[in-house]
Design a protein that fits this description.
- The complex is a heterotrimer of chains A (389), B (287) and C (281).
- Helix content of chain B is 72%, strand content 1%.
- By secondary structure, chain B is mainly alpha-helical.
- Chain B has one domain: MetI-like (MetI-like fold, Orthogonal Bundle), CATH 1.10.3720.10.
- The longest helix of chain B is centred in the first third of the chain and has 35 residues.
- The model of chain B has no long low-confidence stretch (mean pLDDT 85).
- Chain C is mostly helical.
- Chain C has two domains: 69 residues, no CATH class; 157 residues, MetI-like fold, CATH 1.10.3720.
- In chain C, helix 3 packs across helix 6 and helix 3 packs antiparallel against helix 8.
- Chain C starts with 9 loop residues before the first helix and ends in a 9-residue tail after the last helix.
- The C terminus of chain C is likely disordered.
- Classes of the chains: A alpha+beta (389), B mainly alpha (287), C mainly alpha (281).
- Chains in contact: A-C, B-C.
Amino acid sequence: MHGAQDRIGRSMAGEGRIELVGLYKRFGDGTVAVNDVSLLIEDGTYCCLLGPSGCGKTTILRMIAGHEMPTVGEIIIGGESVVGKSTRKRGTAMMFQNYALFPHLTVRDNVAFSLRVRGVGKAERYREADRVIEQVQLEALAARLPSQLSGGQQQRVALARAIIMKPRVLLLDEPLSALDEFLRLQMRSELREMQKRLGITFVHVTHTQLEAVAVADQVVVMEKGRIAQKATAHDIYIAPKNSYVARFMGGQNVLRGRLDALSAGFGTVRSAAGQRFRLALDGNSRTLGQDVLFAVRRDRVSLVRANSETQIPDNAVFGTVHEIEFQGTYVKVVVDLAATGNTIEPFVAYVEESAYFSDPIALGEEVIAAWQMAEARLLADFDGAANEA
Amino acid sequence: MRWPQLTPYILIAPLVLVLLLFVAGPLCAVVAVSFFRYDNFAIIPAFSLDNYLHLATTHLTYSLYLSMIYFSFLTWVFTFLIGFTIAYFLVFHVRNPLIGIGLFLVCTVPFWTSNVIRMISWLPLLGQQGIINRGLMSIGVIDHPFKFLLFSDFSVVVSYVHLFTIFMIVPIFNSMSRIDRALFEASVDAGSSRWQTVFLVVLPLCKSGIVLGSIFVITLVMGDFYVVKVMSGGARASIVSAMADDISTLLFPQAAANAVILMIIVVMMVTLILRIVDVRKELVAQR
Amino acid sequence: MQTRSDSRPWTFYALATFFALYVLFLYGPMICIFVLSFQGPQGALSFPMRGLSLHWFEDLISQTDTGDIHGAISRSIPLAIIVMAITVVVSVASGLAFRERFRGSGVIFYAALVSLVAPGYVLGIGIGLMFQLLGLQTDWYTSALGAQLTWTLPFGLLIMFAIFGRFNRAYEEAGRDLGADAGQVLRLVVIPIVLPGMIAVALFGFTLSYDEFARTLQTTGSTNTLPIEIWSMTTNVTSPVIYALGTVTTAFSFAVIIVSLSAIALIQRRRFGHARAGAGH
C-alpha cells in the first residue's frame, strides 16, 4: 500500500476540513436549490449527501467544487474561504457522474491532463501518471482509450485523474449510478478503501440509501434544499429524527397519534382508532393533547394471527396482509391497516427468514403486528401523512 | 467554458461581418438599384417605380413566375416521394448502422461534385441518339426515339430531381433517425398496418425534416438560372435567366426589380412553410 | 425449429430495389460522360462510342480550343482552400457562440438561413452592384470569396450546431476542474473532440466553393473560376473535351471527398470503434 507516500505534502492537520455556512443558492429561473445549509465535514472523513433528485445535494457538491457560485453563504476548506477561487486553488477534485473521461486521450493522457495544463513536461507527467495508475491497478490499460474500457475501469481512471493532483477533498457525483448492481457493490468497497488509504476528505453524492450507509462516516439526508438530518450512518438508519428521514431510509414505520398522558419521561399516545402506544420521550418536551409522530423499527415487529375479535394490546396494530416479498435473509410483510378504513401508508414488518417460514402467514390473513416499547422512537415533526392506526 | 459576458459577441462577429457585407449589403444594393432609372449608357440613381411597373405589365413576368412555380411544385412532389422513400429505407430497413451510413454517403457524394457537370451529363443519356432511346429501340420497345426525353419540361424536372433530391433526403433522414423505435413497435403492436404506421406515426414525426427539405428544394428551383435554360434547349427561361439576360444588356435596374420580386415571393413561400414548424428549435439545441 | 428472426419483409426487397434504382439514377449520367471521355478522335458528344483513347485528355491538357482551363484551376483551387479555412474557423466560432443565448442570436440565425435560401445569382448581382456602387473592382479573391462564403457558412453552421448540440459539456467542466483555463479547454478538450465535425465542415467548404457557380458568376471579375469556365464551354464547345474535363474535375472532387471521409472514419474508429475489445472488469 502506498498510504504513507500519499500523505506526503499534507503535513497540516485539518486541511481537508470543510465548513459550509448558511449556503443558499437560487438559480436564474427562480428555483431555490439550496436553502440555508450549514454543515461541518471533518478532515479525512467520508461524508455522503443523500436525497432524491432535486433535493440540492449535487448543487452543494458543485459549489464546493467551484462549478457553481453560492448566492449567499461561505465555504471554508482547511480554514480558508474558497468562494470565488478556482478549482486549482481550492485543492478540490471532482469525479463526474459518467466520468467525463476525455474520449480522444488515452488513460495515461487523461490522468496526466491536470499536469499538462500546468506545463509539466511529458516525461515527468507520464511518470506521475503511471504512479497513480498503478495505485488503481490499471497499469495494463494505460495506453487504451476510454471507449475500450469497462464501466468499472473507467471509474478507476476517473479516480486516478482526480487524485493525481493530491487534492485535499475529493468530490464524487453519483459515482456508482452508471454501474450495474454487482459492480456497484464491488466499487463501493474500493471507494471506501481508497478513502482510508488516501486519508483525504471524500464528499459523495448519491440517491441510494444503502450505499450511503455502507460507505459514509457522516450521512447528510437532504430534502428540498435543506438538511433533514446529519448524523452517523448508524444513527440515521436506526434513530431518524423526523418522519422524512424515517421514511426515506426505509427501515421504519411512521405512525401518528395524540398524546394522551405524560409521566416521568414516557408518553401514552392514542391513535384515531383508539389504539394505545407507549414510548419514551427521550427528553423532548411535549404537551398533552399534541399530535405526535413516532417511528417503529420494521425489523423489530412480530406478527401473530388474529381476527376482529382479538384484543389488540398496547404497542400494536391490526390489519390484513397485503403483500409478501422474499428478500433473502428476511421476508417483507406489508400489512394493510384496515381499522379506520383510510390507510395512507401500509405498515411493514421485516420478519426473519426462518421465523417466517416455520409458520408462513399468507396473503389476506389478519394479523396483529406488535413491538416492544423500546423500539418506538418519537419523531421531531408533527405533520406529514402517517398511519391512522 | 465559463465565458465572460462579452465572448459570444466576439465569437459571432466574423459571421455577422460576412452576413452584413455579403448578404445584407448586397440585398440593400439590389433593392436600391431596383428603383433606379437607366439610359443607354449607365444607370441613374433615382426613385422610380418604372421597373416594377414594367415587370407588372409584361406578360413574360407572369408566365415566367408561373412556370417556375409549376416546376417547383413538380420537383417538390418527386423529390419528396423519392427522398422520403430512400430515407425510410435507410433508417428502418438497413440493420447495420455502418452500412446505413455508407449508403447514405453514397447518396450524398454527388452533392460534393459540380452541379453544372451533373446537369450536362444528362445530355448523352436523354437525346434522340442517347443511350435510353438507343436501348429502348434495340430491345424493340419503340420504333422511333422519344423526343420528349430531352429539351422538354420532362428533362428539366428530371435534372432538378437529380440535383436536389439529396436536399430532401438529408433532413428527412435526420428527423426519421430520431424517431424512437419503440414508437414504431408500439404502433405495430396496436395492430396498425404498415401504411398506417407510416402515415400516423412516421410522417408526423418527420414534419420538421420534410419542411426543411421542402424549403431547400423550392428555393433552389425558384432561384435556378441554368438548368431550365439548358435542359429545355433554350425553349424556356427561368426568372433568374431573364435577370441574367437583362444584365447582359446592362439593364441592372430591371433585373434588380425582378430580383426583389423574386425574393419577396420566395420569402412568402418559406414563411408559409415555416408556420408549420419552428425550425430553429429543431436545428439549434440550446441549454 | 426454424429461426425466422433474420427474415426480411417483402417491403425490404421492394425498397432495396428502389434504392438501387435511385443510385443508378444518381450515378448513371456521370458514368456515361466518364465513359464518353475516353473516346478516340472521332468522338462526339453522344453515343455510340467512337474509338477508345486518351485523346481528349491530351486535348484538355494542351488546351487547343478550350479556353483558359489552367488559369481557372489555378484560381479555383486556392480560392476553395481559402474559403474552406475561413468557413471552418467562422463555423466553429459561431457554433460556440450559439451555445449561449445572446442578444440578436435569433436575428443572426435567420439571416444565415436567408443567406442559404436566397437565390445565389441574386446575391451575386447584389455583390456586384454593391462593389460597383462603391467603386470597387470585383475579383475572385475578394467579391467572389465573400459570395462563396454566403453559401458555405450556413452549411458549416448547421453542421456545428448539430455537433455542439450533442456535445457533453461535462468534458469542459472536467477540464476546468483539472485546472485548465478557457484557452486550454478549447485547445485540448473541445477542438480535439469536435475534430471530425470540423473536417466535415472543411469538406463542405472546399467542395461547395470549388463547384460554386451562380454566386461566383457575377462576382469573379475579369477572370474565371473553373465552374464558370465549364459553363462557357457548354455553350461553345462541341467535342468530348468537355466530358474529359468533367471526368477530371469529378475525379478530383472524389479524391478530396475520400480523403476527408477517411480521416473522419479513422478518428471515429480510433475513439469509439474498440468498445468490444478488452471489456470486462
